[in-house]
Amino acid sequence: MQRLRTSRRIWILVALVVIAGAASAVGWSLTRPRAPGFRGAAVNPPYPAPDFTLVDQRGEPFRFSSLRGKVVALYFGYTFCPDACPGTLLNFRQARQLLGNQADRVQFVFVSVDPDRDSPERIREYLSNFDPSFLGLTGKPAQVTAVLRQYGVVAEKVYVEGSSAGYLMNHTASVYLIDPNGMMRVMVFYGQRAEDLAHDIRQLL
Question: What PROSITE patterns does this protein's entry cite (predicted)?
């Protein structure tokens, strides 16, 4: 278990390096502005969040750009995840509670990095343990891979001998915050508090 935790930490660091490299290539960077700015890392300059179409937890096609007009908290994870994913979804639930009436103007989105196992039905059941208002998306492996590349997300299978799950996924664990105009604005890193997430969402509302 310690080895898996160490591996996960390493891959989170690798993911941040990949994101930083992609940012440099397209001319934007991650910065931490002075208060009263964001508590996560600001994307500078903001850029349009890539659009895509996947299948939601009801089995219906869903186009990401249809969320324009809302702040979007976007996270890439998987339902068999033992730590980062449930921790982030608990943060989503707490942040939504902290937002109060403003939560109606926010959509929390979970995109599976494990389409081989994460069917719409499984994602629906999984998200119901946190908040039924959360949007879950999945698709065919090639479709999901294309979305991961668009967002610079690292996701790799790690086979675990003797595990009933068969394999785990090392993956980028940051939350992408997108403003109502569809612009990528903030990266909230794994380990930041729900209060930080709610604060940055309020800044975008």
Answer: THIOREDOXIN_2
